Every structure is written in C-alpha cells, then in structure tokens.
Amino acid sequence: MKKLLLILTIISLSSSVIAQLDRSVVPTAQPNPEIKIEIPESMTFSNGLEVIMVENHKQPVVSFQLFVDYPEEMQGELAGVNSIFGELLSAGTQRTPKDQFDEQIDYIGATFSTNSRGFYASSLKKHTSKLLTLVNEVLMSPAFPQEDFDRVVSQYESSLAATASDAGTISSNVSSVVNYGANHPYGEVMTDVTLANISLDDVKAFHKKYFVPNHAYLVIVGDITKDDVKRYASEYFETWPKGEELTAADYAVPPAKGNNVYFVNKPGAVQSVINITHSVKLTPGHEDEIKLNLLNQVLGGGSFSARLMSNLREDKAYTYGCYSNFNSDKLIGSFSAGGSFRNEVSDSAIVQILAEIARIADEEVLDNELDLVKKSITGAFARSLEKPETIARFALNTIRYNLPADYYATYLQKLERITKQDLILVASEYLSPKNINIVVVGNEDIAEKLAVFDTDGKITYKNYYGQDVERLKEVESGVTAESIFNNYYMKTMMATNEAELADKVKAAKQIETISKAELKAYSATIYMYSAEAETNKTAAYVFMESPMGSGAQQKEWFDGTLGGNVAGPIVNMYEGEELEDKKKPNFPVKQIYYKDDADVTVDLMGIANIDDVEYYKIKITGKEATIIEFYDVKSGMLMISETYGTNENDEPTTAIIKFDNYEENSGLYLPKNTTINNEGLLIEFEVVSRKISKKVKSKAFSGNFKKVEKVIGKLMKG
Fold first, then answer.
1. Same domain, 381 and 501
2. Residue/partner pairs of 25-31 with CB below 8 Å, 24 or more apart
C-alpha cells in the first residue's frame, strides 16, 4: 500500500510539473562559462629557443612546428628572397641529398614541410628520433644546392608569368602596395625584376641572418612528457647556434586620404575583381579584436546571412559571393571587402559595398543578427578546442604576443558581453568608408565609370605588381593601324619600296621553322616545327622528350582547302566556321589582311609605355577571342601579342607571346626567340633552323610529318 501511494505521489507531482511547463516560451540562454584551457609555460634553452609542449596521449603521434619570429624588414631589390629561402629549406642537407631525405621521410611515414618561417614535422612517436635526426640536419647544415635554386626560380618565373591571368593575385598585389606604401615590408611585391636579382648567395645570407633560434618558437604536440621535450630539445635543437639579435624597425603607413580608385586592365575579362580596403591599427589580442571579429561576421564574414552576401548575391544577383575581413598583425592590420562581379554591374556593386560599410557604422545591428553570429562564433570556437593543434596555436599566440594567460579561457565570456553599442563604436573607429582604397581589376571598358568613386575624380592605373602605369599617349597624326601593319610587313620582308617588296614576295613562298625549348621544371625538351606558305597554308608539329616518355604532342595542318589536327588517337578534320577561318589568308603577315575581314575589328588604342619602351597598342577583336598587339614605335616590329578568350567551359584564358632578337634569315627579318606564356606555363623557344623557299613544297601541309620527324630525330641525337 505504501509503495502504491509513493507511485501515485510521483505521478501526481510529474503531472503538476508538466502542466506548469509552457513550451511556447524559449528557455533563457545561459551565459557562456569560462573554459578551462591550460596554456603551458614555455621552456627557454641556452641558444634562446623557446619550446612549448602540448600533451595529447590519444594517439602515439608527435608533431614539431618551428616558427622563427624574425622582424619584418624591407628586402628592396631582392623582394621575394624569403619565399625562395622557404622553398630551398626542404632541398636536402649537406649530408643527405633531397631525394634520399624524402625517401627517409616517406619510409617512416612522416610528414615534413618548410616555409620562410620554419617547418612542420610529424611522425609516430617510435620514429621521433629518426625524424629529429633529419630535422637537426636541416637546422645545422641545409644544402641549398644550385640546381634546386634554379628549379625554384624557374617555378617562380612561371608563377609570376601566371599573374597576368590571375585577377585575384593582381588585386592582392595592388592592395598591398596601396594599403602599406612602397616603404613598408608589406608593400613589397616580388616581380620578374626582383626575382632576376636574387642569387643563391642572397638566399644563404638570408638564412644566416634571419634563421636563428633566439628568435624562434618550437611547439611540440602529441604523445609526450616534459622529460621527452627536454630530451628532444637538448639533443636535437640546442646545438643550433645562436644568431645576432634582430631589432624590429618602425615603418610608417600612409593613411588613405579620401577615396582612391586604382585600376588594373585585364583585357577580355568578363568579371571585375573588386577589393575595397584600407590599413587598420589592430594588433593580435587587442581588446577590440573580438568585437571586430563579431562585427565582420555581421557585415560579410562568410555566411549567406551576412549583409554583403544578402545584398549583393541574394537581392541584387551581382555575384556568387561578396565577403569582408579584418586582419590583425604585429605591425599593421587591414580591412577588406569585395568579390568578383559582372562587368556591367561593377560600379553598382561598389555603391552597395560602400553603403553597407557606412550603414554598419551608423546603425545598430539587429538583435537577431547579433544573436546569430554570437552563436556561430561560440560553436566554431568550441569545436576547435577538440583539436590539440588549437591549444598549440593558442599557446604560441599567448607567448608570442604577450597575451593575458586567461585570454582564450575567457574568450566566450568576452564575446557574450559585447553589445550593439560596442559594435557601433568599433565600426566608427576602425572603418573608414570615406578614406578607403578601391582596387578594381577588369576590362578597361569599365574604367571611366569608376572615376565617380574617387575623391578627386582621377583613377590611378596600375600594372600586375602594383606599379603605376602611364595612360596611353595619343599616336602621331597620320599613323593608323593599317599603316603600322604595312610598316611591319615592309620591315619583315626587308623591303624599302613596293617594287622591292614584290621581288621579296616572289622569293619567299614558304617559311619552315624548327625551334627548341627546355622545360627545366619537368626535365623536358620541346621541339616545335611550324610552316607557313602562300596564301593560307599552315602546319605545326610539337614533339616533347622527357623522363616520363617522348612523343608528338600536337599535329595540325591545312593545305588551303582541307586540314585538321590530332588530339591523342583522334583525328579532327576542320569543318564549318573553323574551316572557313582557316581559309582566310595569313601569309606572310596575317595583319595586312585584317582590313578585308568582316569578322575582325581593329582599334589603334594609343602608345603604351612598358619598361621605358614605347609601343603602338592595337586591339584586334574577333569572333572567338580578343588580341592585343604591341609594335615597337622605333623598330616597327611586333614585340608582344596577348590573346584573351574562353575555353570549352567558358572560363577565361590568357596566352601571351613575346618576340625577341629579330635577325635576317634569307632576306627576311624574323625573331630568333619566342616566349610563350600560356596561363603561367612559360616556354622559351629558340630557333635552331629556319628555311625560306621559293616554292611551296612541304608535305606537312597535307598532314604528312615523316620528314619533320626525321629532322627532329637528328636534332635530338645532336
């Protein structure tokens, strides 16, 4: 009976509680608690190296991250030497060549990578001694071999060559220059000129001066104890000799005065890359950093609910994505907002971005916006704590930036206390919508529409590296595109009058050329055969020899009536519009036929100054692509040809050809060297044979390349 009464009492009480619970009321969120995050103390060794350990015994793995915190300094004419140093640091040691080094890393299943500030290495604990033996060699005796230096330089040459095709890289370069100025380390950009200045000795000098333990932190994470760390550090790192003490210089940053528009022309671009940006005095751990992080999430931090995304993508359909970012830094931080936009709405997009920046500094954010981003940041922060690498990063930041010991433990509490009024205050202090740099990379057709956003109404034109470029000068009276083409024709044929030109044309009915290029990065050699004949016969054959295999890469031919090309085992015959285009005359100089081509529009744009040389700049617009040609004003010769089009996926493509070392060949004036930059793949061809014939006799025009293959075979044998 007592048991029954007890059960009835419990049921009664439960019913009472359920009856009193109002499920229409959302439970009140509890304040964020202080999180227990143990920031380990660092251990400093005799050579000045600070070591931080983070224990994690879930897996038998140990990782080592070395960060050398040398002060930022101007590199001047050697801008980029630090990047090359970071690449070469992994090029083996004086005891263990790179191939053997990599083999030993792979054999123990380890990971090893380097950068300009140090390295990351990881392995199972049982292999730690083997891993650290190799790491010690990198610290004590890196090899810096000449052949690897040449390889890395070649890779950077290709990377710089690809800049013309990469609007994002161009925008980043220009933004750095205009935000920080030419006299600040962050305003330096590696260019083809500074890359050419860098020698292997410069890399070694950089290593000796900056790669020192007394400016370094070593973070060890994993299945370790304090005794393990002491042993690792003393045995493998303490022998690393101490270097000179480096003092950080004080660099002034020019503040933006008014709104300034900077434009980089990217011919053929169907979209504009827009970056609205300025520098910000914001150091890591500053009391306003968390507030600005929250503010940025509301403005354009990445979610579809952010204001920039909601406005410019969801509402206006100007873009697939528009974002913003605050970046803190020991020297100077930055703010940026932007994305990629259709050409026709580029000016409208700038209007909306500036309006959103101004609005968030003038109006309080909505309660639901504030609540949403707080929850988002809280969730991301909590999830990050599951990774030991997060604690390692927190420890490094705490020590490196001298943060309070509880900075991260109280992070969520500080986040929770932020109010709408706090966001208004930091937005007003750190955002400068009326003193901002507007960087636009796009088709020059849109440039003039952007002048309205510049305070003084004048756009500053930049090149890929952020250097000022002169506007095009007007051409001299009487000079036309047709006269430039005709002059180029006369110079090519080495004729001084019409009678002499007629004789030259009779003597040069066919031109056959074989060129050679070395692709050092791939240990490959390319032989390219090309043939042209009156009036529109063409042939091309490309053969590549490499350790991966040798064979023909390309075959194309056209005999004036029929032709095709070979792609792998498939033969494609020209037909339709492609066939009709092939029938258009192009020999010996295709430019002289443009005036009769209804599918081509020619525009003499003006005189461009490139590296202190003046060129006539001519734009040739066809059905499939736009070509920009540059003719040397003094010599009359074609020096640069840039082709802008799209691939089969409608993605923009860029190919740049440079002609150099014109010389006489059997009465014609033709280039000996041709450099092709195809989306960053840089191929430098040099003519090894050229034959001018009075008759059209090459069988290659009909797709028979047997003789060509025989000639190339002899060249390969030397």
1. no
2. 31/413, 31/416
